[in-house]
Specification:
The protein is built from 2 helices and no strands. The protein starts with a helix and ends in a 36-residue tail after the last helix.
């Protein structure tokens, strides 16, 4: 895929995402807690990262040699950051 094809693809994904976002905001059933465009920030970052070279894309760092709970690994991992000193 060349750069022009990639840009066209990302532009089309962005256009479709905006349409889905607008629909979701307009049709969200919980009026007490409405959606806003800020609820979609991380999704926008992921879409924009499609334009980056594969080594620079947003992704979680894969953990090496982590066992699943049924394999004897931890059933819970505390991901709460430590408080400031």
């Amino acid at each position: 895929m060349n750069d022009e094809q990639r840009r066209q693809f990302i532009a089309e994904v962005w256009r479709r995402f905006e349409a889905v976002q607008d629909w979701a905001i307009a049709n969200w059933p919980d009026a007490a807690h409405p959606l806003s465009s800020s609820d979609f920030v991380e999704s926008r970052k992921e879409i924009l990262s499609l334009g980056l070279p594969p080594g620079q894309r947003l992704h979680l760092v894969p953990q090496q040699n982590v066992l699943e709970p049924e394999q004897g690994g931890p059933q819970y991992e505390d991901v709460t950051p430590a408080p400031w000193p």
